[in-house]
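Working notes for the structural subgroup meeting. M.R. asked for a predicted model of this chain before we commit to crystallization trials. I am recording the input and output together here so anyone reviewing the notebook later can reproduce the run.

Input as submitted:
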Amino acid sequence: MLSKEILPNETRIFYKSLFKIVLPITLQNLISAAVNSADVIMLSKVGQTSIAAVSLAGQVQFVLLLFFVGLSSGLIMLTAQYWGK
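Returned structure, recorded in token form:
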């Protein structure tokens, strides 16, 4: 890690703010991956049809996630442009 003398105060504040945003996102993705792995492990005892059903549901969830990320990214850009004026 860089020492405090190298980074200006504004940069340290930015990194602290960034870490506050990135940490919950990282934890959410980690928990989601763990749940999906647990589903596959538990359903491996039941059969391939159950695993295929969970996989299809995961694909639908992923498509919805992509839709919402795209929508929020577009809204963020429009808001930033409006705010910049």
